[in-house]
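Deliverable D4.2, example record:
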Amino acid sequence: MCDCVLCVSCLQIVMIQPEIFNLDDWKELFQKLMKLNPFSANNLDGVNDVSIEIQKLFELRGFNVRRISKENQKEEVRESADVLIATRAPRINGKESASGRWVGLFGHFDVELVDDYSNWLTPDPCIQTQIGDRIYARGIGDNLGPLLQRILLVSNDDIDSPGYLWILHGEEEIGSGYPHEIFPIIASDGSIPELEKICLWIEETGYFLADGTPRILTKNIDSNLEVNEKIIEYVLEILQIVTPNHRIAVQQRFLNKQFGEDKCPCLTHFVSKGKAPYVAFGPNDVETRIHDSNESLLISNIYLAANQF
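Output generated by the structure prediction step:
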């Protein structure tokens, strides 16, 4: 394998195996973290407990994790959730490489509060339940489910992999107060040197169209860099390879956000201020119903999203 990481010819040699993702392991981990009630609207302690578990998952995979807490926070009443900055250097032939490529990932580990249980098909929205070919639970699509899937897909035994910079926070569902305070600071103070190395930003999740076609969002942040278009072309070709009928729908824009893309702290303070291109893909579809009753994921989309990642 060459050191390009995104090389399509190399991907065809390796080809993704069906066993790459264990659905049962993912469901068990998701349920373990949902028991901590990571609702930022009323339980920031639970959100922070989830961040501790996620930090452990990263460290088991060889990541260095930096935890950033809001200063002068009252111990008896948590005012904000911590921020996690997880990094792991590129690997080529099993060794760290100074010349390898880096990808940036971002997202959140809090979930939307369940206000009304009566409209759910399942007795308890906080317990994942399979009905037919879908799995139902609060947070399964936004965004604990996709986040945990991606972490599980990264192994400490990886021989060849890009470098990872993973930026996570726990206040998405309450407007991202603390991240909007701290992200502009750490984006410009040099404390995250990996930011300058990012060649591709990957959004927290993405969507399938109503007909089952994966919808891939891309955005070239700096069109003056010719390499950006080449990276986007590589990514799209790879995503076509792992899609059963090789059919994808591509749109040039950011993923829509509940509070608007300008309110997303990661898009605002990292992605838009940098030069690396952006891509969004993931397991959600038109029936996922984030922030609504009967939030769910189609099982076949879960597997395909694993192959995409």
